Amino acid sequence: MNNTQTTAHTNIALIKYWGKKDSQLRLPYNDSLSLTLDGYYTTTSTKFIDQADDQIWLNQKPAPLAFATRVQHFLDYVRQLNHSKQAILVQTDNHVPTAAGLASSASGFAALAGSLNYLFQMHLDLKTLSILARHGSGSATRSIFGGFVRWYHGHDDQSSFAEEIDGADQMPLRIISVVFSDQPKKISSTKGMQQAVSTSPFYRTWPTTVQQDLTAMLQAIKQRDLEQIGLIAQNNALAMHALNWTARPAFSYFTMDTIHLLTSLNELRQKGYLAYATIDAGPNVKVLTSTSDAAFVQQYLYQNYPQATTTFLKPGPGIKKTVL
């Protein structure tokens, strides 16, 4: 196959993972659960080229060194699996604010893994493709699938994979992304995880907290209970960020805007609107709401946070390919 293009959507973790027990294999300490989003995605095409070196492009420009290096390592891994030394052209269009706490690496490496799967004609099923994507980015293992997705932390390479647990097609759940900053994080997710794991005195209780939240979340999804889905997701996100606040030295991804928005959402809930937050490694907030409340909540956010970029999102699909 000469040229293959794959599109993968980003995801938000409603039950977080924060910390890796194996950094090389990207094995987390605990399971996580995410929701794939329709509006943020990455499209990647790959093809073999008759050159000495790989060519890596991001948004129609030569990729920045850090991004190119990470992609290069992934290409080397896939080539090793396929006993190949052939150079590859990678062309990626990223429709996600990069490195701003919006899981751009999730959609990015899921799309790259998918395209390479077809390029090398590996014929991987989705479970095995999620294992492959994990070698590029931990959260990419979840972006192979649509809807609600569970990532099993596992104990080795083959036991750490994701699977779709509910397509969320008929779920009246909507997400409003509130982006206060699209600038790269001052502390990378990898560095933040390492610091929290090694220095927070509360990290030892984190896996137990996650397991309890995960069990409750699976039940809430099964019952289509949006209120519980939102409440559990927000509590879990704040518990994750509490690990950073109790690290030595303490650090935070929050800004004053983040904190102010959390207070505003509490006021909205007191007025009867469904509005809960989940926050990854960054200052930006994803607001979980219902189809019936979404218009009011979005207008409220637009009026009260004019400095932010708000995007209306729905549950999104799994990875798709286009043959060019």
Automatic annotation (TrEMBL):
InterPro entries in UniProt: GHMP_kinase_C_sf, Mev_decarb, Mev_diP_decarb, MVD-like_N, Mvd1_C, Ribosomal_Su5_D2-typ_SF, Ribsml_uS5_D2-typ_fold_subgr
Annotated Gene3D superfamilies: 3.30.230.10, GHMP kinase, C-terminal domain
Residue ranges annotated for the Diphosphomevalonate decarboxylase-like N-terminal domain, each copy included: 8-162
Mvd1 C-terminal domain mapped to chain residues: 177-310
Keyword vocabulary terms for this entry: ATP-binding, Lipid biosynthesis, Lipid metabolism, Lyase, Nucleotide-binding
GO MF annotation list: diphosphomevalonate decarboxylase activity
Enzyme Commission (EC) number: 4.1.1.33
Pfam families: MDD_C, MVD-like_N
Stated family: Belongs to the diphosphomevalonate decarboxylase family.
PANTHER family recorded: DIPHOSPHOMEVALONATE DECARBOXYLASE (PTHR10977:SF3)
NCBIfam families, sorted: mevDPdecarb (TIGR01240)
Protein name, as recorded: diphosphomevalonate decarboxylase
Naturally occurring in which organism (per UniProt): Bombilactobacillus folatiphilus
